[in-house]
Amino acid sequence: MLTSLLVTASAVALSSAAVPPQRVDTDARRAELLRQRAAIDAQLQALDGPPPSSSEGQAAKPAPVAGGGDIVVTARALSLTTEVAGQTVTTIDDAAFRNTPATTIADIVKLSPGVAVIQGNGPRDVGVSIRGSNARNSFGARNIQVFEDDFPVTQPDGLARFDLTDPHAYGAVDVVRGPSSARYGNYALGGAINFRTRRGRDIDGLEVGSDFGGDGYANVYATLGDAGPRYEYSLFASLAGADGATGHTGYQTGTINAFGTFSLDDDDRVAVKVIYNEGEFRLATRLSYAQYFANPYQQGCDRAAAAAPGCGTISVLVNGVNGARVAQTAAEGGLARNDRRTIVGTRYEHDFGAATTWRTQATFDSRVVNQPTSATPFKGTLDSYNMTSDLTHRGPLLGMDATGFVQLFYNYLDNQSFSFNKTPAGRNGFGAPTQTVFGDIRNMGVRAREELQLTRDVRFVAGIGAERSIIDVRQTGYAYPIGLTPTLTVIPAERRFWNVAPEAALFWQALPQVRLHARVGTGYGIPQAGQLFVTPDGTIGNNVALKAQRNTGIDIGATLTLGDDLTVEVTGYHEWFRNELVSQSGGVNLLAYTSNVPRSVHRGVEVGLDWRPLRRWLPGAKLQASYSYNDHHYTDFQERLTAGSVSRLFDRDGNAIPGVIPTFVNARVAYDQPDGLLRGLGGFVEVTYRDGYALDNANLLSVPAYTLANLNLHYDPPRDGDGPWSRISLFASVQNLFDRTYVGSASIVANSFVAATGIQNGAAVLRNTTGTIYAGQPRTVYAGIKTRF
């Protein structure tokens, strides 16, 4: 570390000498010296211990140093997702997950307070929720923005999926919590997640590894990386697959993930990002609550539909057009996904002097899907383009140190999708088309931000974003009446939305060990294109009444840091949600449509702990824990239900919002030998608790609570060790140690009532609603080995 400090100080001196006097005015020169001073201060702080895992705006970090003492190219523009001032942020580095199976990104993000993860649609897909933001969605991520190395991986329609890359590629993950549309724009109702790939300077060569586990799991991967005075790169590739504990849930997937930064000269830098993933996934059907208890892992369902109890089925048209139907299990129907994702991005930065940096970024994102996952298979090509251009200026404002930021942005999605009737002919049984959707989604706007150091200990942040969103799509519906001529119905839907999102935050370093923060932020999210094709009258047409969702939230919290022995973060939040999108009955003999819930309240508490309790006697002992409490409920919502010829409204005011887990806890007790012959040998015991939560708007059916335990042993020697064993890392892990059967994922259940009495059906009826539950992973043993060259 001392060598790094001396190198940084030398670089400061050289850079000062290299700047011609005529090129730098007094303000710019002062800003550059302040930036350099912050870099040295950060290095000095690092000598006393590592930075806390949770950050609400840290000091600027120095230029990283390569193995040979060379200064590696770095960015000067304001980062979108790392070192985020003005937000509640938790950063999880790879020390927490590099010696674990990390079969999905759930093994990473679950370590952050406020984050809940469920099984998605497929054995590698997961649904991620920040403060309940994505609780109603049973796959991927909506209502949060997702990035990788500051490049967007959420498409302009608001969907991000977490099965497009391998967690072994990552060196850290930043979780930004709270409504964040001032910074991230559309759909950032709950926050953002940024995955950071491992840097070339950390890899410094070639690493090859393989993981194996129960249910046929295997992953072979390699990482290549290096860094020099003007470049840094990493290249990751993997092949992974498994048979799946649940019947008909195997997969095979390949991933390439690359990131490189290059300095063209002292003022110009380029970054390049490439992600490619293709996967073949077999999917089981979701079960009813009753089927889950009868046969949670759907064993024996690879034969005829009635061969075993508790087997989920789909109803398939015999001729693929109309008329008679037949029930098929997932195996009979060949339910599957074949998805391909390609992301290519480039970023260019130019310094206008020492204080101002211009950055322009462009990303192409292609999602090609072939999904015979249900009785109506889906195919589509969804190509998107995302462009931003911004200026960052670091210099005094009204006598205070300041960082200013302004950005223009534009993104575009070209949607070409098709749905079909399924036939009994297995995976390739595509029958007559049911609908096509062609069109585009565009978002464009401007965002601005100012960070002011009011005093040495008080920092103020204010920002605002304004965005114009346009949905211009056309649905063509196909109908095949028996004995009549097929009909086509064209539904054009064009909607335009204006959204403005302000935010403000204040941070006070009350004591050297205590930082306090308060923030008010806003978020918004426009409807999905598919929600516009049925009117509130329950008829085909443009749903012009549908509004954008909005969220206004307050965060108040504190972070306590005692060297590198203890870090505690506590945050309380209260959010006022408006116009949440939900599905409603249109009435008797009418179609279901999407409507807005007028008002709901989201509030809770988040706690994070990182503690070395016995530094003197057991320096390798560590306790890490996170606690989250969520109280989310409707405050103004009338839900319409229909039964036979009767339609009624039911008051949901005060009811818990379904899908939101009220309380969840993660705790890990670990020990890693810090020195001696056994340096790098360690292990941990991890406990996860998830509270029960409601599955329906009436709160009549709930998922039971559960507790899981994981056990891990590993050998991960430091890179500077001697001998052949210093280049080899090993781990063994038992997930779900006590083999607990639990609900890994549950879709929201629609309520119903008895037409004759008007009384809602209770849990006994709702338990038989199909298409809801996937069982979680049973006890599974994993082992892995990795070597460095």
Task: Describe, in plain words, how this protein is organized in 3D.
The chain is mostly beta strands and about 800 residues long. It is built from eight helices and 38 strands. The chain has a single domain (about 105-490, about 500-789), classed as Maltoporin, Chain A (Beta Barrel), CATH 2.40.170. Helix 1 (about 1-20) runs antiparallel to helix 2 (about 25-45). The model is unreliable at about 1-25 and about 45-70 (pLDDT under 50).
What is shown here, in short?
The protein is built from 8 helices and 38 strands. The strands form 7 sheets. It has a 22-stranded antiparallel beta barrel.
Q: Report the strand count.
A: 38
Average pLDDT, rounded to a whole number, is 87
What is the CATH fold-level name?
A: Maltoporin, Chain A
Which structural class do the helices and strands define?
mainly beta
CATH architecture: Beta Barrel
Features:
globular; 8% helix; mainly beta; single chain; disordered N terminus
SSE inventory with pairings:
Elements: H1 2-18, H2 26-47, E1 54-55, E2 88-93, H3 106-109, E3 115-119, E4 126-130, E5 145-148, E6 151-152, E7 170-177, H4 181-184, E8 191-197, H5 200-203, E9 205-213, E10 217-227, E11 231-242, E12 251-263, E13 268-282, H6 289-294, E14 314-317, E15 325-328, H7 330-333, E16 336-352, E17 356-371, E18 378-397, E19 400-422, E20 430-453, E21 458-479, E22 487-511, E23 514-525, E24 549-562, E25 566-584, E26 593-611, E27 621-636, E28 638-643, E29 646-651, E30 663-672, E31 681-690, E32 693-694, E33 702-703, E34 706-715, E35 728-735, E36 743-746, H8 763-766, E37 773-775, E38 780-788
Parallel strand pairs: 5-8
Antiparallel strand pairs: 1-2, 2-7, 3-4, 5-6, 7-8, 9-10, 9-38, 10-11, 11-12, 12-13, 13-16, 14-15, 16-17, 17-18, 18-19, 19-20, 20-21, 21-22, 22-23, 23-24, 24-25, 25-26, 26-27, 27-30, 28-29, 30-31, 31-34, 32-33, 34-35, 35-38, 36-37
